[in-house]
Write a structure and sequence with these properties.
The complex is a heterodimer.
Chain A: E1 2-8, E2 10-16, E3 19-27, E4 30-33, E5 36-45, E6 48-56, E7 60-67, E8 72-80
Antiparallel strand pairs in A: 1-8, 2-3, 3-4, 5-6, 6-7, 7-8
Chain B: E1 5-10, H1 13-21, E2 30-33, E3 42-45, H2 47-51, H3 60-66, E4 71-74, H4 77-94, E5 98-102, E6 105-109, H5 117-135, E7 141-146, H6 149-156, E8 164-166, H7 189-197, H8 203-208, H9 211-218, H10 220-229, E9 248-258, H11 261-281, E10 284-295, E11 300-311, H12 314-322, E12 333-345, H13 354-373, H14 402-406
Parallel strand pairs in B: 2-4, 7-8
Antiparallel strand pairs in B: 1-6, 1-7, 2-3, 5-6, 9-12, 10-11, 10-12
Helix pairs in contact in B: 4-5, 9-10, 11-12
The chains are: A mainly beta, B alpha+beta.
Chain lengths: ~80, ~400
């Protein structure tokens, strides 16, 4: 089931071979360990570049985004099979 | 020198990209929709969904009936554009003779770059591997290699998904024998009827028919079809396709099918604003408008008209497109569209009229603000109730503007 969220989150990342790889993030006091990075894509919202990270902890799918102007991370969307 | 053309076609593209992004969807029937309402359409179905009978254009409620386990996902154009850009950049490393035909298809002219079909096949195999390694492991494509552009696309459609088909000139003797007409690119049901009415029932018949006979009965298009199946090139790989549009337009299936003129005018205005803004981003102005609406059942109202002067400003284009509503709306409308045609580069000649200069300055200022802060940050008040309608979509048009990929 897909759910739109759009809430701020705290993300732990690794910078590796010119890439940003999220390792875990915290949302509503729960820490989610990322097991799979499916896709990274970017888009412009006005002049601001936003990076979208499609990740999974094996049970849930999360769409995270990084706003490059504010350097804020947000959780855009969740999908799980529940 | 014999030409060698490669055609690459990503398989079940939007759905596969969604499965690439979300591993929980892999191996499952997935339908990508323009809108997630029951009356919305499936615009791309995953291979798993297609095996259960789900097809492009099917309504969501119908897809759910034949495939109750289908997972429906709302389409995400920025994601597909980004992935397309990544794929096409790999193709451009092979050759600069690349024609981006659509969001998920491209031609490469390998003539002169490779000496034989075997080398071309090796390039195709390497591209398939690179797409998986560099873009996404779930992405597959079908590739066709042939001596003409048309045959290369025909070849790529022979095996899906993840196919690689080569058609050599000597294969033309047998490849079309008893093949149904609609297997050919460019022949749909209407043309098939016409061909059958003149005694052509298969692609083999088309190949053996006289070019003169086809031209007499179907005009130049009939002649081109004959050329295609006989391996005669009529259209080279066009590396400039997508650089400048010949027309720009938008259509929208309205969520609320209605005869309410004010509602439909508001949505038409939004489509016109978007088309106008895109037109100006290419530095162009329009000399002709086509717009109209289709009814839920049969028919609709569609008109195109030449403009007495070329238009550039949003307000002028919105006003022109609204003229279609001088016609009465006799039934509930399901689709509205506007297209700006006969585009020409913007004239730098100043208008004699002060209000026209003011309008142009205002349009340019609004464009700057919308580019900086996002589409429709500034918009006419009459369009405000419709901001959630007609969101960003990737059209089914075949000539893709590079800006649609490079956004």
């Amino acid at each position: 089931m897909h759910q739109k969220i759009d809430e701020p989150i705290e993300v732990e990342v690794v910078f590796l071979r010119s890439r940003i790889i999220p390792r875990s993030f915290s949302w509503k006091n729960i820490i989610y360990r990322i097991k799979n990075l499916g896709l990274v894509h970017d888009a412009f919202v006005g002049r601001e570049k936003v990076y979208y990270f499609s990740v999974s902890d094996g049970v849930n799918f999360f769409k995270l985004c990084l706003h490059t102007n504010s350097l804020q991370w947000r959780l855009e969307e969740i999908y799980n099979e529940g | 020198m014999e030409k060698i053309i490669l055609h690459l076609d990503m398989n079940s593209y939007f759905a596969t990209v969604e499965q690439q992004a979300n591993p929980l969807l892999r191996g499952k029937p997935v339908g990508v929709c323009a809108y997630l309402s029951e009356r919305g359409c499936i615009i791309a179905a995953s291979r798993e969904a297609k095996l259960q009978g789900v097809s492009t254009g099917m309504r969501v409620f119908a897809a759910r009936q034949i495939c109750p386990k289908i997972v429906l996902v709302e389409n995400d154009p920025p994601k597909y554009r980004f992935v397309s850009k990544s794929i096409f950049s790999l193709l451009k490393k092979v050759s600069d003779e690349v024609e981006i035909y659509s969001i998920d298809e491209a031609f490469i002219d390998l003539t002169g770059l490779v000496k034989d079909y075997q080398t071309a096949e090796n390039i195709a195999r390497r591209l398939k591997v690179e797409i998986k390694e560099c873009v996404g492991s779930w992405l597959t494509c079908s590739v066709g290699i042939a001596p003409t552009r048309w045959l290369a696309k025909f070849a790529s459609e022979e095996k899906k998904p993840d196919g690689l088909t080569v058609i050599r000139r000597e294969d033309l003797k047998t490849i079309f024998t008893n093949r149904p007409l609609q297997h050919a690119w460019g022949i749909a049901s209407k043309l098939e009827k016409r061909l059958k009415s003149i005694g052509i029932y298969t692609l083999g018949d088309l190949q053996k028919a006289s070019a003169f006979y086809l031209k007499e009965n179907l005009g130049m298009y009939g002649y081109y079809l004959w050329c295609h199946v006989n391996g005669i090139e009529v259209e080279r790989v066009d590396t400039t396709r997508g650089n400048l549009p010949k027309s720009i337009g938008h259509s929208y299936c309205v969520p609320q099918q209605t005869t309410d003129k004010k509602y439909l005018q508001g949505i038409m205005a939004k489509l016109a604003l978007r088309a106008a803004s895109r037109m100006r981003s290419f530095g162009m102005q329009t000399n002709k408008i086509m717009c109209g609406f289709s009814y839920v059942y049969h028919g609709g109202v569609w008109h195109s008209w030449r403009l007495p002067v070329a238009l550039y400003n949003s307000s002028d284009i919105v006003r022109e497109s609204a003229r279609i509503f001088s016609h009465s709306i006799e039934q509930k409308v399901r689709l509205i569209a506007v297209s700006l045609r006969n585009l020409t580069p913007i004239s730098n000649q100043l208008s004699l009229f002060a209000n026209q200069i003011l309008n142009t300055n205002l349009t340019q200022a609004i464009d700057k603000l919308n580019q900086r802060y996002g589409e429709f940050t500034i918009l006419p008040g009459s369009v405000l109730p419709f901001t959630s309608y007609a969101p960003d979509r990737i059209g089914f048009r075949k000539s893709v503007m590079l800006e649609n990929i490079e956004q």
